[in-house]
Design goal:
By secondary structure, this protein is of the alpha+beta class. Helix content is about 15%, strand content about 25%. It has helices at about 20-30, 45, 60-75; strands spanning about 15, 85-95, 110-120, 125-130, 160-165, 170-175, 180-185, 190-205.
């Protein structure tokens, strides 16, 4: 029997936010008013509404999110006790049946990105991740599908260029910021609200002799 060595996989984690019920109950109506309005603003930065993490009322949520990020880093065997996990951007995303899905993109300037499903259902747009180059595609266009003529029998984890994740309410999807991602449009009969955002890792100040990732800001000079 053939033995498969699964090398270099990309890890995208989905975890439950343990304070979801109480967080949604207390702040959902308030958070809905903070949407960055994708109709008028191309990005959350354009709107100036990308700093939810600075609101002290939401600290419990971000502490829960940090626990999920630590579990993600555990999968990578990273000693996160030596790291500061810095939330640098966070914003409200909103979709309904009339709002176009998000096009494929990545998040610049960050290390880890996340999407937390504050409100969603089985009709909500799916989260989709993409790889632009599949190193298993050993011949040109070998994995490209056709409406009529195909050499592909079906897609699996080895030959696919994209992968979808169901947006279960109360869960967060955590992934490398460089990973291309989008939304796959569904019938979306209800409103879908998310908190999305970015994280930057750096060493804690007492580990300044380490070379991995970014030095603590105490070691920076701005002039």
């Amino acid at each position: 029997m053939i033995k498969v060595h699964e090398v270099f996989p990309t890890v995208v984690a989905q975890d439950r936010i343990d304070v979801h019920d109480e967080f949604k109950s207390e702040y959902f109506n308030e958070l809905k008013t903070l949407w960055f309005d994708g109709y008028n603003n191309e990005t959350p930065e354009n709107s100036g509404r990308c700093s939810l993490h600075l609101n002290k009322n939401y600290l419990g949520f971000f502490q829960s999110l940090k626990r999920s990020v630590c579990r993600y880093l555990d999968l990578l065997e990273v000693d996160h006790e030596k790291l500061d996990i810095n939330f640098i951007k966070s914003w409200i995303g909103y979709h309904n049946k009339d709002i176009p899905g998000l096009k494929m993109h990545s998040h610049n300037g960050a290390d880890i990105s996340f999407t937390y499903y504050l409100s969603s259902n089985e009709t909500s747009d799916k989260f989709c991740v993409h790889q632009l180059t599949n190193t298993n595609e050993v011949a040109g266009a070998l994995f490209e599908p056709s409406d009529r003529f195909n050499v592909m029998k079906k897609f699996n984890r080895y030959n696919c260029h994209s992968y979808t994740i169901t947006p279960h309410e109360g869960t967060v999807v955590i992934f490398p910021s460089t990973l291309q991602h989008s939304t796959l449009k569904k019938e979306n009969t209800g409103d879908r609200y998310v908190i999305a955002g970015d994280i930057k890792l750096c060493l804690k100040a007492e580990y300044n002799l380490y070379h991995q990732t970014m030095p603590h800001p105490d070691m920076w000079l701005t002039c």
